[in-house]
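Database export, one record per block. Field names are fixed; values are copied verbatim from the stored entry.
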Amino acid sequence: MAKEKEEEKEYDILKHILVPKHEIMTAEQVKEVLAKHNITVIQLPKILSTDAAVKATGAKEGDVLKVSRNSPTAGTTTYYRLVQKG
């Protein structure tokens, strides 16, 4: 059982084909997105700090993640998520 946990830590989930690209945004980037959409940071959809992708990126509570998903039919779509304690 301990060996399974050890192997789990070594695997980079962000390299999996089904996991979209996650990036931590800078304060300036967040400011631009919020102004563009005329919203506040608390109005962004949330993602828990316990999410595997959040852990892999090293994001902390209060960070905003840019999630880019590729689709063969829709092209690339971008989502923004506020990291909250989970």
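Remark 1: The chain has one domain: 2-84.
Remark 2: Residues 27-37 form the longest helix (11 residues).
End of record.
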